[in-house]
Design a protein that fits this description.
By secondary structure, this protein is of the alpha/beta class. It has two domains: 3-55 and 109-183 and 277-340, 3-Layer(bba) Sandwich (FAD/NAD(P)-binding domain); 81-101 and 187-274, Polyamine Oxidase, Chain A, domain 2 (Alpha-Beta Complex), CATH 3.90.660. It has helices at 13-24, 59-68, 109-117, 157-163, 172-180, 199-202, 246-257, 280-283, 325-340, and strands spanning 3-9, 29-32, 53-54, 72-74, 80-84, 89-92, 102-104, 124-125, 130-133, 138-141, 145-153, 188-195, 205-211, 218-221, 230-237, 266-271, 310-312. Helix 1 runs parallel beside helix 3, helix 1 runs parallel beside helix 9 (325-340) and helix 4 (157-163) packs across helix 5 (172-180). The longest helix is centred in the last third of the chain and has 16 residues, at 325-340. The two termini are 24 Å apart. It binds flavin-adenine dinucleotide.
């Protein structure tokens, strides 16, 4: 059976940050990732289909961009916003929708690319969904099992409970909390529409909109640092059983930003609710009750279990900035501290 000091389940930013820090402190680490790619909810193809912003005060993200020389730039917010009401679309002077935020010049996934680039080849194994963590912390996928001193569950707690058999010895109240802890943005569809130029800026528009009509309920400018590539993005809730209709999306863009917006060069619809490694519940017909975000950073996630050998590390387990990239890094920091002091 392959051995490592630590097995990390999940190669999102939290899991990779844990792996990279432990590798730096001399531990052997194996990261098992279900998808055929790293990054989890960070996905840049080429623009961000998952997270795109970070904000003032998020020191861990800032430290990582500085450390790896990852270029960032301010979110475009200058101009007027648009409000899409049932009976009309109107222009709102100024932009009350966007606050100051920063973006990653080459996409948010440059963070996870930089982290994985620090790990020895063979550390991150992709296409390896973990199906079981046993009582003696043996971690099993369809292909193999791994034995280690520490296991880090760097997947959202609800995803862990729904995709893996977890140790019987874990307290039942812990598993109940896991199941009820929402996956941040796990019910969201992100739409990215790309154009040859940011024509809305020339009209004095910020590219930001709120809508009571849908299908997207909010929209923002997602253009690159110098306006190239030019793009909007929008969020929609995953309520339609057949997903989003491209024709409805283009009609809404044209209604709000003018006819040119109705003909994007490229339209991408990333439905996170249908991603089994972000929202396995929807595939299994599990309908959560109203999401209870007060469970983020719950006390049960702050203490390692099973003789201080099993650790929780995803953004949902963070006590500050839960849901954000910063929260995923805070959780990783706690995990690394717990492992290094055990
Ligand atoms: C549309 C969208 C927009 C967002 N916008 C922002 C933003 O602007 N700013 C911001 O700060 N945050 C934003 N977020 C949130 C941000 O993306 C997350 O906080 C962060 O990426 C979470 O990282 P994580 O490592 O905790 O979890 P994840 O990224 O979910 O990583 C978990 C990993 O575990 C893997 N996995 C799951 N189950 C298994 C299994 N059984 N076996 C092995 N591997 C498994 C998954 O494939 C995944 O790679 C957004 C998220 C979404 C979806």
């Amino acid at each position: 059976m392959p051995q490592s000091d630590v097995v990390v389940i999940g190669a999102g930013i939290s899991g990779l940050a844990v792996a990279e820090a432990l590798h730096r402190s001399g531990r052997t680490v194996t990261v098992l990732e279900a998808r055929p790619r790293i990054g989890g909810r960070l996905l840049s193809d080429p623009l961000d289909l998952g997270a795109s912003w970070f904000w003032d005060g998020e020191q861990r993200v800032r430290a990582m961009t500085d450390r790896f020389g990852i270029a960032t730039f301010p979110q475009h917010i200058a101009g007027d916003a648009m409000i899409d009401e049932r009976d009309r679309v109107h222009r709102y002077p100024g932009n009350p929708i966007d606050g100051p935020a920063r973006r990653f010049a080459h996409g948010a996934a440059s963070l996870t690319d930089a982290l994985s680039g620090q790990l020895p080849e063979g550390t991150v194994l992709m296409g390896q969904p973990v199906v079981e963590v046993s009582d003696n912390l043996c971690v099993t996928t369809a292909d193999a099992s791994w034995q280690s001193q520490h296991v880090v569950i760097a997947v959202p707690p609800a995803v862990a409970v729904m995709t893996m058999r977890l140790p019987h010895a874990l307290p039942t109240n812990l598993l109940a909390v896991c199941l009820r802890t929402p996956v941040w943005m796990g019910d969201t569809i992100k739409v990215v529409a790309m154009y040859d130029e940011p024509f809305w800026r020339a009209d004095g528009l910020a590219g930001a909109a709120m809508s009571r009509v849908g299908p997207m309920h909010e929209m923002h400018d997602l253009s690159g640092p110098d306006g190239s590539p030019a793009a909007f993005f929008g969020f929609a809730r995953a309520s339609q059983p057949d997903g989003l209709d491209e024709t409805d999306v283009c009609a809404q863009l044209a209604r709000i930003f003018g006819p040119r917006a109705g003909f994007p060069q490229k339209l991408q619809i990333q439905d996170w609710s249908r991603e089994q490694w972000t929202n396995p519940g929807s595939a299994k017909g599990y309908v959560p009750s109203a999401p209870d975000h007060s469970l983020f950073g719950h006390a049960v996630y702050q203490q390692p279990q099973l003789g201080s050998r099993l650790h929780w590390s995803s953004t949902e387990t963070a006590t500050h900035y839960a849901g954000h990239i910063e929260g995923a890094l805070e959780a990783a920091e706690r995990t690394v501290r717990d492992i290094n002091t055990s």
